[in-house]
């Protein structure tokens, strides 16, 4: 009897320990014994294989004795899992981040790698999204931007010249009326997640705000009462009121129902992405490269010059609890090496952070985008905090349904922006 | 039980739970006890504590301790203030956040819709019990959605309720304008609750059918002989006889509504449009995962816990009362 009790006790304790072990195993930092653990949401995908192979080979040259383990996490749980790891102070040595708010909100848990990556500063673009208070926290892998794609076939049907899309907002609205007559919608819009307004703000930002306002916005000095800032929300509302968007925008998912609507020719324009999804590669497949165009933002405020809004898309950062930040930073450098990024561009269909990569094989749309990178500026919405972005999503839905005024929207956003 | 009055109450409880004649027999043969050695008595005294120790330890270590940690964590700050005590700051922020108030309001809405969620399976079970034509077929069909995962149900209804989806096409063919079922803030919450009821009423239906099985057929026959109409039979015979079953279904449906809507919400509306379909659970998930505000999420969790505690207490009260009726 006593023996049985003892064995049960051993079993219970054993199970309890095993349970703890398995729960925290993947989060354990194991850098001490010559191993780096990397968390991301890409390494599990088949297209990432050659990218990872190239990056690992590059890292092997520098640190042959350090083993690297990639742990692919599901993207929709990624920041939840990472948050738990950060909270416990134990986690991966190197981790993937979206540029902008996601990494800036978590710099407490990261090591600045400014000095380690100094050599890559010129070759790569998109550093701003991984920088906070002048310190670089991550190396960019892809660039994410918000070009306006259009369907040349629909332009032809509507009697418009596909080679010269509208350059002013008024002309653009008139073109949309012509497109409506040809029974297509002007914009494929999915705003179920409230993401549509982010793309709108950034795509039209360079031609709505003056250059000074734009730079001040990115620098954190945002004047929400400026008439031009209000204009961003007014054009958004105007597009809704004039039925320029696909129907039921507030219940349509941007990923990927609105992109599907554009691909299937239901709408003439879409504010899409440069990398990952809703981008030139997937549109090329459905519309073919000849029919797909990329246009500059139409000028809303006279005297402005359109520029492509883009930032670092995804990148890798180094955790502050890693044993040797130099080694981990070298891994980040390998993950952003020219060869690795070339593989990423080719297989994943992304505009890689290395702007020296030749994209002429990828069709005219990709070439147009890359040509505009030189004059591009950081996207407006990326500068906002996640909290303000979330609020803006809900307010944009209210603007579309007509239950709020532009003035009220700007007031609420100003309050949220100043608080955060 | 006058015997054992002087003994620790824990022991009584454990003996009572073990139940049966075996557990009470040592007490009856109390005369043999004094002959045992002191050591044996001691072991017997501690035995119940040792026996329940694993269960208690597991509950304390894996349930209560994390719960206390979570409550404690909700009084600390986020970001720069990580680890610092902020008093009721998080709670003040929560109640100042219109989104959280919407989420609480939606919990209230769920409670209001509860009678509907119970009445539907109750009514359908009544029809099956009264053997309407095709009742066998309906019995299996009604249960079918209960085996589907909320994600699949959500995806199916996303397609059906899409603005250019089949439901609006049918409405359009009879001349009714399209409705943005999941895009209109006044409609969306009702759609999600409706789909949740559709997906889960099969379980309640089975419980109701089980209740009907215990119904005294003589009462029904008597009512029919007395010339009672269908409505009178349902109101005066079936409902009173099924009081306990109905209460049980109320309790389980309430729990289901408060705890398992996340999947549907996530797939169907993501809390939108305009934040109109937020529930506390979804709010907690957003704050922790997307906004990087774990302490604020803890505060919201604590409030949700308090709500569940109140609901749970009410349930226990209800069940106790119905127990006394018997």
TrEMBL record, chain A:
Residues 1-23 form the signal peptide. This is Sugar ABC transporter substrate-binding protein. Keywords: Signal. Gene3D superfamilies: Periplasmic binding protein-like II. SUPFAM superfamilies: Periplasmic binding protein-like II. It comes from the Bacteria. InterPro entries: Bact_solute-bd_prot1, SBP.
């Amino acid at each position: 009897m006593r023996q049985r009790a003892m064995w049960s006790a051993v079993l219970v304790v054993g199970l309890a320990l095993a349970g703890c072990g398995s729960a925290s195993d993947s989060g354990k930092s194991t850098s001490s014994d010559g191993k780096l653990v990397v968390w991301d949401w890409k390494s599990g995908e088949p297209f990432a294989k050659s990218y990872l192979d190239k990056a690992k080979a590059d890292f092997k040259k520098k640190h042959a004795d350090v083993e690297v383990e990639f742990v692919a996490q599901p993207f929709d749980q990624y920041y939840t899992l990472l948050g738990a790891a950060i909270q416990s102070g134990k986690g991966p040595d190197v981790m993937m981040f979206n540029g902008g708010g996601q990494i800036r909100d978590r710099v407490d848990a990261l090591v600045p790698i400014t000095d380690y990556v100094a050599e890559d500063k010129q070759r790569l673009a998109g550093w701003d999204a991984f920088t906070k208070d002048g310190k670089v926290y991550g190396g960019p892998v892809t660039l994410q931007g918000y070009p306006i794609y259009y369907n040349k076939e629909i332009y032809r049907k509507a009697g418009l010249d596909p080679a010269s899309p509208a350059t002013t907002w008024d002309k653009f609205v008139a073109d949309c009326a012509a497109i409506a007559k040809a029974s297509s919608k002007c914009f494929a819009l999915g705003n179920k997640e409230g993401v549509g307004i982010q793309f709108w703000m950034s795509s039209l930002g360079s031609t709505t705000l003056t250059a000074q306002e734009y730079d001040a916005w990115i620098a954190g000095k945002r004047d929400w009462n400026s008439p031009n800032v209000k204009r961003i929300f007014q054009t958004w509302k105007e597009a809704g009121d004039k039925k320029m968007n696909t129907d039921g925008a507030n219940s349509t998912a941007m990923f990927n129902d609105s992109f599907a609507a554009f691909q299937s020719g239901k709408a003439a324009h879409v504010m899409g992405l440069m990398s990952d999804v809703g981008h030139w590669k997937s549109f090329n497949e459905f519309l073919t490269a000849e029919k797909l165009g990329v246009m500059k933002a139409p000028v809303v405020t006279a005297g402005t010059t359109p520029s492509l809004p883009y930032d670092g898309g995804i990148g890798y950062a180094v955790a502050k609890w890693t044993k040797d930040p130099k080694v981990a930073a070298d891994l980040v450098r390998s993950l952003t090496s020219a060869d690795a990024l070339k593989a990423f561009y080719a297989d994943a269909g992304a505009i890689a952070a290395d702007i020296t990569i030749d994209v002429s094989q990828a069709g005219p749309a990709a070439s147009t985008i890359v040509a505009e990178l030189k004059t591009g500026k950081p996207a407006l919405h990326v500068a906002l905090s996640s909290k303000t972005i979330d609020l803006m999503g809900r307010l944009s839905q209210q603007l579309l349904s007509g239950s709020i005024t532009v003035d009220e929207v700007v007031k609420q956003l100003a309050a949220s922006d100043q608080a955060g | 039980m006058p015997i054992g009055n002087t003994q620790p109450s824990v022991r009584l409880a454990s003996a009572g739970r073990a139940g049966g004649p075996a557990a009470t027999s040592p007490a009856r043969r109390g005369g043999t006890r004094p002959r045992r050695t002191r050591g044996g008595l001691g072991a017997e005294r501690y035995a119940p504590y040792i026996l329940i120790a694993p269960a208690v330890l597991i509950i304390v270590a894996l349930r209560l301790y994390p719960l206390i940690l979570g409550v404690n964590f909700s009084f600390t700050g986020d970001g720069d203030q990580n680890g610092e005590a902020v008093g009721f700051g998080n709670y003040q922020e929560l109640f100042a956040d219109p989104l959280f108030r919407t989420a609480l309001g939606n919990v209230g809405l769920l409670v209001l819709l509860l009678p509907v969620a119970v009445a539907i399976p109750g009514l359908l079970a009544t029809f099956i019990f009264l053997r309407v034509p095709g009742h066998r077929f309906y019995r299996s069909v009604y249960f079918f959605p209960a085996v589907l995962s909320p994600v699949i149900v959500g995806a199916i209804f996303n397609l059906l309720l899409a603005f250019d989806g089949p439901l609006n096409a049918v409405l359009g063919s009879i001349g009714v304008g399209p409705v943005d079922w999941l895009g209109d803030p006044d409609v969306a919450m009702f759609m999600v609750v409706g789909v949740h009821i559709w997906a889960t009423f099969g379980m309640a239906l089975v419980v109701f059918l089980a209740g009907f099985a215990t119904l005294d057929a003589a009462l029904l026959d008597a009512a029919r002989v007395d010339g009672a109409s269908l409505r009178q039979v349902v109101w005066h015979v079936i409902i009173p006889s099924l009081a306990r079953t109905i209460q049980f279904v109320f309790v389980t449906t309430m729990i289901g509504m408060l705890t398992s809507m996340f999947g549907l919400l996530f797939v169907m509306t993501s809390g939108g449009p305009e934040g109109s379909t937020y529930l506390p659970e979804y709010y907690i998930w957003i704050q922790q995962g997307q906004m990087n505000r774990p302490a604020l999420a803890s505060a919201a969790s604590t409030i949700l816990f308090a709500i569940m505690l109140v609901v749970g207490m009410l349930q226990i009260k209800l069940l106790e009362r119905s127990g006394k009726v018997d």
